Amino acid sequence: MYKRLRKEAADAQRSTEPDLVLAPQQDNLQSWRAWVAGPTDTPFEGGVFELELNIGVRYPLAPPVVRVTTPLFHPNIHDRTGEVCLDILKEAWSPAWTLVSVVRAVRALLAAPNADSPLNCDAGNLLRAGDVDGFTRIARRMVAEHASKPMPSRSSLFPSSSDVPQESSSCTTITIVVVAVGVLLMLCS
After folding, report:
1. What is the mean pLDDT of residues 132-138?
2. Is 85 tagged catalytic?
3. What share of the chain is helix, strand, coil (3-state, %, to 5)?
């Protein structure tokens, strides 16, 4: 898991994608933050949305837990918890998905809300009732109120090339101790 996460962190640091910034939290490869620009020609255009990605020990066999921390009005994003309703974060997950591809999928969801699977029932009900103008008006107001911060620079998140977090030394120490005990048990038997 850590080898893959270090590679993903190095890829994120080298990325030049203008509408997406992704970085691990300092000294913790299992906690990441991402920022995505609202897609053009959507109510989210002009906004910058922050996401938290928490990576479990089963990654990449299990998906990360993704939460949008910037308040927004969208049928597939819970208005209080930021939980994201996206099939790739549940039953359609595959180890082929990377953290950057997950963030891209969340950004694509902003452009293509699914009113039939709402976590925010108010947003879903407006869209299902055909009140696109009402949905757009509320979504744009939320963008103006909460998503007007600029996109962070990669250099502020990765000040030097050596700033990709490494596997914690405690995991390495535990692994060495377990291997050593196993070898001793084999020699003693």
Report:
1. 98
2. yes
3. 40, 15, 40
